[in-house]
Amino acid sequence: SPLTHITNIATNMFQSGVVAPVEKTITGTLDWVKSKTTGSERQYYASDGIKYAKGFYQSLPEAWTKFKNIMSGKEISVKPDMERVPISTSKKYQAYTTPLRALEAADQFFMTLVKGGEKATGLTESAAESVAKYRLFRQAFDPEGKTGQGALLKTWDKYNSYVNQLRRLPGGNWIVPFLQTP
Fold first, then answer.
1. DSSP state of 16
2. Any long-range contacts for 125-132 (C-beta under 8 Å, 24+ apart)?
């Protein structure tokens, strides 16, 4: 529904365009205080928030191009759940997947912006991609907590992993078609 698209865009914009630079600025400020009081070496800088924001907004043209290419079919996107929805003909598939392509195009738009922001702070392409997936809730399920997430997120991912297993049952793709679509 349109509300899904609005929610997706609003949360992606807030998470990537507001939370990320503020978080980086606060982390850098707290790290400065810690280094002054304990004499430890600094790991984060408040200026990373500004660098991130600059890289984020400089990536707008690239992000817009990626959005248009995914919507037009010129570029193949990740589409985490679309291949699991059983549709028989290409015309039906094209019509059925237009809203999903729009969601994916919007996510790839924000992924491009986040990667631009993260690379501006000095991260490699691979590390920036990983952070972008985390910021936009696209990382793989991690029920074991290998990425360092806390108990609540590990429990949630364990639950999602179990639900994902329903796809193995007959008709499971119809029951759980959109588990990984952010």
1. I
2. 132/16
Whole-angstrom distance, CA of residue 64 vs CA of residue 60: 6
Task: Tokens 């349109």: give the residue.
Answer: 2
DSSP result, 158-181: HHHHHHHGGGGSTTHHHHSS-SS-
Q: What is the pTM of this model?
A: 0.77
Instruction: Check: CB of residue 65 under 8 Å from CB of residue 71.
Output: no
SS (H, E, C) 61-75: HHHHHHHHHHHHCCC
Average pLDDT for the chain: 85
Q: Give pLDDT tens digits for 43-68.
A: 999 999 999 999 999 999 999 999 99
Q: Which two tokens stand for residue 146?
A: 């290998």
CA distance 128 to 16: 12
Residues whose CB is less than 8 angstroms from the CB of residue 127 and which lie 6 or more positions away in sequence, other chains included: 118
